[in-house]
Prior knowledge:
Blueprint: H1 9-22, H2 27-36, H3 41-53, H4 59-72, H5 78-87, H6 92-99, H7 104-121, H8 127-140, H9 145-160
Helix pairs in contact: 1-3, 4-6, 5-6, 7-8, 7-9, 8-9
Amino acid sequence: MEVKRSKTPEQALRTLMNVCAKNERSISDVRRSLARWGVPSEQQQPIIDRLVRERFIDEARYAEAYVREKLNLSRWGVRKIRAALRAKRIPEQTIDEALAQADPQKLGSKLEETLRRKMQGIRTASDYQMRGKLLRYGAGLGFDYDEVSDAIDRLMREREK
C-alpha cells in the first residue's frame, strides 16, 4: 500500500476524529487510512479502540447508513449491499440487522422503476434480447433472479398494451 504523508499516531487520531465526526466510517476504512499514513501497526489498534469507545466509529450505525444510501441513492439490491459490507468486514449479524430496515415493497418498486428507465434506453431486435439485457442489469444491481424476472415480466406486459 502506498504511504501518503506520514502522520504521528496523535495526528492520525485527531484527523480521524474529525473525519469520523463528519461521515460514517467502518473500522476497515480507518485501518486503511492508518496504514496509508504510515502509522505503525502496533499503534493502530489503540487508536481504533479509542475511536470506538468514544463512539466516533460504530459498525452498526455505519452499516445502517450504508444500507440506506445504497438502497435509496444507488438503487442497489440486497445481495450487492451484503457483499459490499462483507468486503468491509462488517459482522454478519450487524449486516442482517441493517438490511432488516429494507422494505421489500419499496425495493420491488425501485427495481421496477430502474428497469423501466433502463428499458427505454435499450435498443434490441427482439424481446428475448431485451429480457436478457434487463436480467443481467438487474442481477448486476444485486437483486435476486426471481425478483428481476418477475419485474421484467410485468414491464413487458405493460409495453405490449
